[in-house]
Design goal:
Blueprint (H helix, E strand, L loop, with lengths): L2 E7 L2 E6 H42 L4 E7 L2 E6 L7 H26 L3 E4 L2 E4 H16 L7 H11 L4 H25 L3 H29 L2 H4 L13 H11 L3 E6 L2 E7 H4 L8 H4 L5 E3 L4 H7 L5 E5 L5 E6 H13 L1 H8 L2
Parallel strand pairs: 2-3, 9-10
Antiparallel strand pairs: 1-2, 3-4, 5-6, 7-8, 10-11
Helix pairs in contact: 1-2, 1-3, 2-3, 2-4, 4-5, 5-6
The structure holds zinc ion.
Length: 347
């Protein structure tokens, strides 16, 4: 991401995305210096909103990488939000925005404050920023992902039902909401409303899909998806023996077993440039292993560094093999009928 740091508050870096700078130039061009000042105040408000989320999130032990400012708004990038703290974390942003908005509006009626002049119209700075903050808070309360309201709705639903179902309902509510917004946007020729509607629609479905994948991956264990048919080689076998096995079984990688113990792994890529007479012992690599009850999430993580993982039982004996191709096939099958399969697996 093309962004650079402008400040660090409460230990959280605040970064500006490059497109944000371009937008500032445009704002200055069309609305002049006063427009630019107003815009900067608006984005300071967005930062405060995100800081409010981040502050509560930090209290719940969430790691906050940074707050990124994009032309469409701010984003606090944090590690996974714990289910328990979600309601408080989500509601903190709108509360701060609305309180700040009310404070600024009241303050403005007491002391007045500077007046900005944009395209011939006067804007009292405090009142305008105050109203924008109230709008920011209320808008974020819309019950649709990725708005805070979507998370609040999910957290409230999750106190009555399981998390996945709560997410599904919140996500459907969000999609209906985005259709309504889209309709308004089209009828009023409002391009910004149309863009926001599409953004919400995308966010709503994304949130649910990501969670479904995560929940399902956690329930699927290595032993459910491993190939239990083990064709192995011995360290003293030659590359020629291995080629013969590959020809016969057409697996692209093999465990190397010595005295019943897994001691290495050898694959097609390891033999392409060596002579037929070389012993497997001289070209084998250390195997990547997982326990039988490792989750699909763990397996996918391990497959980042190897083309296949070996599934070991409690006595450290090889029980099966999972290759990258196996996992890709499993993901395709899950996409087809996720719920049915998950029911069978959790039996
Ligand atoms: Zn928010």
């Amino acid at each position: 991401m093309l962004s650079f740091r402008i400040a660090k508050i409460m230990g959280i870096p605040i970064e500006l995305h490059i497109t944000f700078i371009l937008l500032l130039v445009l704002v200055y061009y069309f609305w002049g210096l006063d427009g630019l000042i107003l815009y900067i105040f608006l984005f300071a408000s967005v930062v405060l909103h995100e800081l409010a989320h981040s502050y509560v999130a930090k209290k719940h032990g969430v790691y906050i990488e940074k707050i990124l400012l994009l032309p469409i708004g701010g984003m606090a990038m944090m590690s996974k939000i714990p289910k328990k703290g979600e309601l408080k974390i989500a509601i903190a942003g709108p509360i701060v925005s609305i309180l700040l908005g009310i404070t600024l509006t009241v303050l403005s009626s007491l002391i007045g404050g500077p007046i900005l002049r944009i395209n011939g119209i006067n804007y009292p700075l405090l009142t305008t920023v105050g109203i924008l903050n109230i709008f920011l808070g209320v808008f974020n309360l819309l019950p649709a992902f990725p708005m805070d309201g979507g998370r609040i709705l999910r957290a409230l639903l999750a106190s009555k039902m399981d998390y996945l179902k709560a997410t599904k309902i919140a996500s459907i509510v969000g999609q209906y909401f985005s259709f309504l917004l889209l309709l308004f946007g089209v009828l009023s020729f409002n391009i910004i409303l149309i863009l926001i509607a599409l953004f919400i629609y995308y966010g709503a479905s994304q949130e649910y899909n990501a969670l479904v994948a995560e929940e399902i991956f956690d329930k699927i264990k290595a032993k459910d998806i491993m190939n239990p048919r083990i064709v192995s080689v011995s360290p003293t076998d030659s590359v020629r023996d291995l080629v013969y096995l590959m020809f016969k079984y057409r697996y692209m990688g093999y465990p190397v077993i010595e005295n019943g113990k897994l001691v290495g792994t050898v694959s097609f890529n390891d033999i392409t440039t060596v002579s037929d007479q070389i012993a497997i012992r001289d070209i084998m690599k250390p195997p990547v292993t997982v326990p039988e009850d490792a989750t699909l999430n763990d397996v996918i993580f391990k497959l980042g560094s190897s083309d296949r993982v070996y599934v070991m039982d409690k006595n450290d004996r090889l029980r099966g093999i999972i290759s990258k191709t196996d996992v890709l096939r499993i993901l395709r099958i899950l996409r087809l009928k996720d719920n049915d399969i998950i029911k069978k697996i959790s039996l």
